[in-house]
Write a structure and sequence with these properties.
The protein is an alpha/beta fold. The protein has 18 helices and 14 strands.
């Protein structure tokens, strides 16, 4: 780690270093069910931090939720201009986020009203580009569709003499769209329907903004769409509704998941109405106008030095469902860093922008680990691991079959044990019995990272 990184930033970066496995591991509840630490001060950098600190005393909403929704809304307003490159891919300022409440009382929704009101003063036209009710990929494409031209026959005296292209739909000129989904669990359920295209189109929206589906019927397409998503969900809903498929196909890791809860009690409500937001509105307008004149942003030398220090750990694959859900860490961090730079009206991504982004990403990663713990996202493997943790003496394959009341095939058990072994969650021991060697499996509580 570079020696000139401030101690407070070094503390954030240490979150990406692989810890040694303790000889006496913590219990599962201690190790995997700890609420994320409060956002590090670096996350409140610049104009976004100033706004959140001004709003915070007047709302019961979690400051992490305020900050993420503010950044998402601002990125939506900017549109498809400022970006950074990762190899051949361009990453614009559209974020997908979901606030995860411990319960339905997590004050997920209260954080949005103030942000919407503030950003509406920055760009009143943008307010017309908000929607909800994600249900199909085709519906999402239609909201940002290109003009539609159809070939139609030219007839003379009832005979087709030629064909011509006729514009049957003008399309949507402004491709900015902010989707606000207060019941994001419903969206996850929709995405799991066998013939539904929503998951695939949402992934296209995050990746490139060029949207299409392969359907037999007349289909719309969209190019250069700038789609941002804000979802709200409870942690129980998220654990229940997020499937192995959504984790495996990269849908879930395109979303920043952040745990939120009520930050304070305000029986009489806050007094945001007494705050003059004019300086914030002016600052956001100036940043918006600056961003619209930008193209690619690059890191300055100090930011590159920090990036090189964290890249190996940041990009390392981590096991389990939490690892799959948080596996797009480099791109997510850089999108956040670019947003911080634009809000500073900086043509370069500086060290403070990157450390702010790392602090916010670290909170999101902690949130994912709080929700999913060390679940592997494999029901059979997770069940066997739980069995192993209750049997320090180890278990045989016969014990495992009996545990499942012989409802699991030998092939399924073999596959699950291979998953546990590959992730460093279990080890196989061979015992000599005088006849055919017996196999015994034991838990490795810490596992691999």
């Amino acid at each position: 780690m570079p020696p000139d990184i401030p101690p407070s930033v070094s503390e954030i970066l240490r979150g990406y270093e692989t810890p040694a496995v303790a000889e006496e591991p913590l219990s599962e509840s201690q190790a995997h069910r700890r609420w994320p630490d409060p956002l590090a001060p670096e996350a409140y950098h610049g104009l976004a931090g100033d706004i959140v600190r001004a709003i915070e005393p007047h709302t019961e909403a979690d400051p992490a939720g305020l900050l993420l929704q503010l950044l998402t809304a601002f990125g939506s307003i900017v549109g498809r201009t400022a970006h950074f490159r990762a190899e051949a891919d361009r990453h614009y300022l559209n974020l997908f986020i979901s606030l995860v409440g411990a319960t339905s009382k997590g004050r997920k929704g209260t954080s949005w009203g103030i942000v919407e009101g503030l950003l509406g003063q920055v760009d009143s036209d943008w307010l017309a580009h908000m929607t909800s009710g994600l249900s199909t990929g085709e519906g999402l494409i239609w909201a940002v569709r290109d003009p539609i031209d159809e070939q139609q026959a030219i007839r003379e005296k009832g005979r087709v003499t030629d064909y011509q292209l006729v514009r049957t739909d003008a399309g949507v000129e402004d491709k900015r769209l902010l989707v606000q989904e207060p019941e994001f669990a419903r969206v996850l359920r929709v995405c799991e329907r066998e013939t539904n295209t929503l998951s695939a189109v949402m992934r296209q929206a995050w990746d490139s903004g060029n949207l299409n589906t392969l359907t037999k019927s007349k289909r719309a397409t969209a190019t250069g769409a700038h789609i941002s998503i804000i979802g709200h969900i409870t942690e129980n809903e998220l654990r229940k509704e997020l499937s192995d498929t959504a984790a495996a196909n990269g849908f879930a890791n395109r979303i920043l998941w952040a745990c939120v809860r009520r930050s304070r009690e305000l029986p009489e409500g806050g007094a945001w109405h007494s705050v003059d937001p004019s300086s914030f509105v002016a600052g956001l307008k100036a940043a918006r106008d600056f961003a619209r004149g930008l193209a690619e942003l690059k890191k300055d030398e100090a930011a590159r030095e920090i990036w090189q220090a964290v890249y190996s750990d940041l990009s390392a694959g981590k096991p389990g469902l939490a690892g799959a859900v948080s596996s797009r860490s480099e791109a997510q961090t850089m999108r956040l860093a670019t947003l911080y730079a634009v809000l500073d009206r900086s043509p370069m991504i500086r060290a403070e922008h990157l450390t702010a982004a790392l602090a916010l990403w670290h909170y999101c990663e902690q949130s994912v680990r709080y929700v999913f713990g060390d679940s592997l996202g494999d029901a059979t493997a997770d069940e066997i691991r739980s069995l192993l943790r209750t049997r320090p003496e180890g278990v045989t394959r016969t014990d495992i079959r009996e545990h499942f009341q012989r409802h699991k095939s030998a092939e399924e058990i073999d596959r699950a044990l291979a998953v546990l072994e590959s992730f460093g969650q279990a080890r196989r021991e061979t015992e000599q019995t005088g006849g055919r060697p017996a196999e015994r499996w034991r838990s490795l509580r810490g596992g691999a990272r």
